[in-house]
Design brief:
This is HD domain-containing protein. InterPro entries: HD/PDEase_dom, HD_domain. The chain is about 60% helix and about 0% strand. By secondary structure, it is mostly helical. The chain has one domain: Hypothetical protein af1432, CATH 1.10.3210. The longest helix has 25 residues. The structure holds adenosine-5'-diphosphate (ADP) and nickel (II) ion. The site of nickel (II) ion (NI) has 5 residues, from helix 2.
Length: about 220
């Protein structure tokens, strides 16, 4: 198989796994992450197959989406062996998909390869800006979160365990607890630059939201 054929097979596999999901994690998200990863790849000397494979597969074994992430990881591993990836390539890809998440980078962040840093940046860019606002509201609606409650103050410096155990999060607090922190956590210079405008867009949104909430505008 050529690299292009392998990537096509990985794309098809990811589509089959992600198409049912409606938590804002669906295949559209995957395709945007792949597209952004391709853009970042033009500026970084990273391995294309590892980067794009990890981008396609990064949410397939997410513990928020499947009851048994371990089983999915071994399914991914088997599939990648079938399409002739080496065990070294597979190890690199699974390390990325396993260590990408925001909560994992809160304390003792795992050291990611350049390929992993690119996928992490691409995933994080999709969580901010206009798309990020939409995904947060969509997620919050699906999980019956309160939109906003000025009495529930955001906690901006949560550690891993605290973040994972957040219970009464509001949609607006999610911006302070995660989304506004992502810009300074970007790895690559290109992602840092792209993030600036998206970050400002969220700040403008929050300001307008609160003005309207208080009937000041
Ligand atoms: P990913 O790892 O792809 O960024 P997540 O599983 O963390 O995605 O979440 C999916 C989307 O829902 C993201 O855009 C994220 O910011 C948003 N989201 C996650 N948790 C919450 C929450 N408690 N309230 C509102 N939005 C959330
Ligand atoms: Ni994702």
């Amino acid at each position: 198989m050529t690299e292009e054929q392998q990537l096509q097979a990985i794309k098809d596999f990811s589509y089959q796994k992600m198409k049912k999901d409606a938590s804002g994690h669906n295949f559209d998200h995957i395709q945007r992450v792949v597209k952004t990863a391709k853009r970042l790849l033009t500026q970084e000397p990273a391995d294309k197959l590892i980067t794009l494979a990890a981008a396609y597969l990064h949410d397939v074994a997410d513990d928020k989406l499947v009851s048994d992430p371990k089983e999915l990881e071994s399914e991914i591993q088997k599939f990648l062996l079938q399409i002739d990836l080496t065990s070294q390539q597979i190890e690199k890809i699974l390390f990325i998909t396993h260590n990408l998440s925001f909560s994992q980078s809160l304390d003792n962040p795992p050291k990611l390869s350049l390929e992993g840093q690119i996928v992490q940046d691409a995933d994080r860019l999709d969580a901010i800006g206009a798309i990020g606002i939409t995904r947060a509201i969509y997620y919050g609606g699906k999980h019956a979160e309160t939109i906003y409650d000025p009495k529930i103050l955001p906690r901006k410096n949560l550690n891993k365990a605290e973040y994972r155990n957040l219970s009464n999060e509001t949609i607006i607090n999610h911006f302070y607890e995660k989304l506004l922190k992502l810009t300074e956590m970007m790895n690559t210079p290109t992602a840092k630059e792209v993030a600036q405008a998206r970050h400002q867009y969220m700040l403008d949104f929050l300001e307008e939201f609160k003005n309207e909430w208080n009937a000041e505008r």
